[in-house]
Amino acid sequence: xxxxxLKRWLAMPDKCFSRDSRVDDTAIHCDCSGLxxxxxxxxxxxxxxxxxxxxxxxxxxxxxxxxxxxxxxLKAGHxxxxxxxxxxxxxxxxxxxxVAAKPEKLDDAHYxxxxxxxxxxxxxxSQRDIVLQVDKQGLLIGVRLHDDETKIKRTAxxxxxxxxxxxxxxxxxxxxxxxxxxxxxxKEAPPxxxxxxxxxxxxxxxxxxxxxxxxxTVYVREGETFSAMRYPNLCVLFPEDATVDExxxxxxxxxxxxxxxxxxxGGDERTLLLLDAxxxxxxxxxxDNQWLSELPRVALAPSQIxxxxxxxxxxxxxxxxxEAFALACKDHALQDLFRTFVEKQIALMxxxxxxxxxxxxxxxxxxxxxx
Length: 371
Ligand SMILES: [Zn+2]
Prior knowledge:
alpha/beta; 371 residues; endopeptidase fold (from Nostoc punctiforme); 5-stranded parallel sheet; binds zinc ion; single chain; 16 strands
């Protein structure tokens, strides 16, 4: 189906690269994200985060939640994307394309892939080959987009089938708990960067998806070791003297200090690093990344107990990643979105199951078991 549409568009006499995307019977004018927007509209799908004209970064954002980084899972009809860390005020935010065929192995670290995309270099829509680089595990780590580029660009990439996914592309959540239209997306994200342990995304409930629904351009890096990041007044959200053993399996969030001044403008704005990992893994991330362990630390002081009713919290001041984010930038709409999401989960499991499995939790809500 995707193939059919793209081949029809490819055969059109009037193709060119344009920031104003349009298609009719004889012409297709588009940039990289414009091509995907036209395709999604043609197929009757949902655009990421309810944005009228999403850019590459928005596709990247949703693919990072619902997709794979592995070359073996890359197939025809998959959307593949990467993004710039620092987004320009206008112009390219990254790249997004459609995979035309399964990748062909060139050597242990490189694959050739046929793709459909729209680029300035080809003046619009074309089908061509690009080169992808993989690490020893087969994870995508780099790309050469044009033959005349001598170096492979290192970047994180994610992909997923555009059609037939069990996820909703509109919100990046499993379709059964779709939260499209529950919150409006904001154009700019607060100065918060998320470092996510790879295990976090394997969980069925990733609360970072909710953060992205509100702040689609938030920068998330996935891994266990990270190269040092340069941002003004960088600090990490982590308690100074955490007693990790007591909190085994849980998240490094709330403790003690007054709330952050992020997202409020002013000259000495801080950039906050948020670790999306269990306690043990967050501590290991600090240990394995010396630059991270040397950063100033801050902690949040939540005024109420976590709304994460379906995950065990170790202490009354423990927060989920999305709640820490909401508290750091004082965003009540994001906290409300989280509540809606948790309520949908409880409705799906049923009141009795909620009572039985979660009744002993610190933040159990009796009211959720009543009509
Ligand atoms: Zn949705």
